[in-house]
Design goal:
The protein is α+β, with helices and mostly antiparallel strands and about 575 residues long. It is built from 18 helices and 31 strands. The protein has a seven-stranded mixed beta sheet.
Length: about 575
């Protein structure tokens, strides 16, 4: 029986939640002092539907900010430099919402609004509404990125100022990642302390919480262990392990990914009065970056959460694509990144024939390998001879394979891998995808031209064996526990520790956010030595985050794991 919690939430005592359109509109219209109402929005909301509901509020003038935007042609021209001529990759935008607004239209609208009497109600709805009016009441209709992606796939939503819902998902996602979400996040960060109400419209039943409830929730979560809401996705290579362990829909062919710690895309759930309120987990990072990340980590990464955990399931599935990630100089020059995707594979479970592809074989001809990759991908008549060029290693449970940028790699079939990586999640240059099609029936994009520019050819079998496989170093031990350093490579900024324990083991955040996964054992409890937070129970395969501000905390087996061996893997930023 699965114990994996797919909907982890944090209780907000004395919080206030309003649900359903009738009660929400009643709440907002009940205060006679709210004469200037601004409704800010994030991408991915059902814009027309929510706009129509807010029109039901009594008003003298109602303004839809899209009517104040520049033309779609102008917006397409303005954003083109950031989207580039590439199906996947762009360059991170430096635009702001002010750039979308037509200055003359806004000036005329502000003049008209200034002529209204004090008793007349104005509602300004849409992206940038707080730039148009000085609001008595500011509401933010938010949306998590993972839900946005589902709506993109269903062609339900448009991009910022453009009608692009009928474009392929990859192009919609690219516009969101490189431009729209950047623009809207920039504006959201300015408003976090000003918002009077936050709106959750992920489900068909909208919900509203007030500022005090939101702030109480953020304050509580930033001082305790917590989990974000995991999301799962099928893959061309996906497996069957997560269906059982995470209790997923058995009718789906496979699940390849479990994104259990990607705060820029995951949700947070607040439990308020017996109801769940869903919001982007990145709100917490924007508001409480110092407490969650730690001051030294914040100084280096700003308000980016730099550690990502996800599960890759190839049990009874296939190999991942053979791939490589760009090193920092390339990522900075090509995409505007200030750090790149560094990662590792921690093997949570493995079949007898499990393997990992890592590095190249000694003495190969790089030019010949690239030619053969291009030939195999262009005509498909002869598959790429992976065994001729790529180093292949057996994979066993609790192995840890380090993958610094520039290293060719992929997980083979019949493994369950915990991928521990830096956050940037699009920068995978696929070299070979085993001649298969994506779930949409089309070939997945291959990036040999980019990949060959970043491959570190010196990372052959000898290098891999010495520096990238099971670099375990005992650090400490005590009554019923031991601690080992397991990586990452010296060129990578994440450090990982493995704790094996049957009794209580003490941890410390060491001024960095900690991210952990229970890789063996059914159930453990995370506790504060000083009672600073309530005991927090974690189950097998669940990832949890411990904010830097927590400091000391303990982990011990509990429930059916009492007295039994458990294992956690922990990641933090190397100081």
């Amino acid at each position: 029986m699965s114990t994996y919690d797919k909907f982890p939430s944090t209780m907000v005592e004395e919080g206030r939640l309003v649900k359903g359109w009738d009660d929400i509109l009643s709440e907002l219209s009940g205060n006679s002092k709210n004469r200037r109402i601004a409704v800010e929005c994030y991408a991915g909301i059902h814009y027309a539907t929510i706009l129509a509901k807010f029109r039901e509020l009594p008003h003298t003038i109602f303004v839809d900010t899209l009517s104040l935007f520049k033309s779609e042609v102008e917006i397409m021209q303005m954003t083109a430099p950031f989207l580039k001529d590439d199906v996947l990759f762009g360059f991170f935008s430096n635009l702001s919402l002010e750039d979308y607004l037509d200055a003359e239209k806004v000036k005329r609208e502000k003049q008209k609004l200034s002529e209204l009497g004090d008793g007349e109600r104005v509602i300004v709805f849409g992206y940038g509404s707080s730039l148009v009016i000085e609001a008595d009441m500011l509401l933010y209709a938010d949306m998590p990125r993972w839900e946005i992606q589902q709506r993109m796939r269903r062609q339900e939503v448009d991009g910022l100022g453009v009608n692009n819902r009928e474009e392929p998902f990859s192009l919609q996602y690219k516009r969101g990642l490189f431009n729209d979400w950047r623009v809207l996040d920039k504006q959201k960060k300015k408003l976090l302390h000003r918002v009077d109400y936050w709106m959750d419209s992920v489900s068909s039943l909208p919900k509203l919480i007030d500022r005090d409830t939101f702030m109480r929730g953020m304050e509580k979560i930033s001082g305790k262990p917590f989990r974000v809401v995991p999301f799962f996705d099928p893959a061309p290579w996906g497996g069957q392990w997560m269906k059982e362990v995470c209790d997923l829909d058995r009718s789906v062919d496979n699940f390849g990914w479990c994104f259990d710690c990607v705060p820029e895309e995951n949700s947070l759930l607040l439990a308020v009065g017996g109801e769940r309120f869903e919001m982007p987990s990145v709100n917490l990072i924007y508001l409480k970056s110092s407490e969650v990340l730690g001051e030294t980590v914040e100084a280096r990464f700003g308000k980016d959460f730099p550690i990502r955990f996800d599960l890759l399931d190839t049990m009874q599935g296939g190999n991942l694509s053979l791939q490589v990630h760009p090193y920092l100089d390339y990522a900075r020059e090509q995409f505007g990144l200030h750090y790149t995707q560094e990662e590792s594979y921690y093997v949570v479970d493995a079949g007898d024939d499990a393997s990992v592809y890592l590095g190249v074989k000694p003495g190969i001809d790089p030019g010949a390998m690239i030619r053969h990759l291009k030939q195999a991908n262009s005509n498909g008549s002869e598959p790429f001879e992976v065994e001729k060029y790529v180093n292949i290693l057996p994979a066993r449970k609790h192995d840890h394979f380090l993958i610094p940028s520039g290293t060719i790699h992929c997980s083979g079939k019949n493994t369950l891998v915990l991928e521990i990586s830096a956050t940037p999640n699009l920068y995978t240059f696929k070299l070979w995808d085993w001649g298969r099609l994506g779930l949409d029936g089309k070939p997945r994009p291959i990036n040999i031209e980019r990949g060959e520019k970043v491959i570190r050819w010196e990372r052959d079998a000898g290098f891999v064996e010495k520096q990238l496989v099971n670099r375990f170093e005992p650090l400490a031990s005590g009554d019923g526990w031991s601690e080992e350093k397991t990586g990452l490579h010296e060129t990578q900024f994440i450090e990982t520790r493995r704790h094996t324990f049957a009794k209580t083991v003490t941890h410390h955040t060491c001024h960095s956010v900690n991210v952990l996964n229970l890789v063996e054992g059914d159930e453990v409890v995370v506790e504060s030595p000083t009672g600073a937070f309530e005991p927090f129970v974690v189950h097998y395969a669940e990832t949890f985050i411990v904010p830097a501000a927590v400091g000391a905390y303990t982990v011990r087996p509990c429930g059916i794991s009492e007295g039994k061996k458990c294992v956690t893997i922990k990641a933090m930023i190397r100081q």
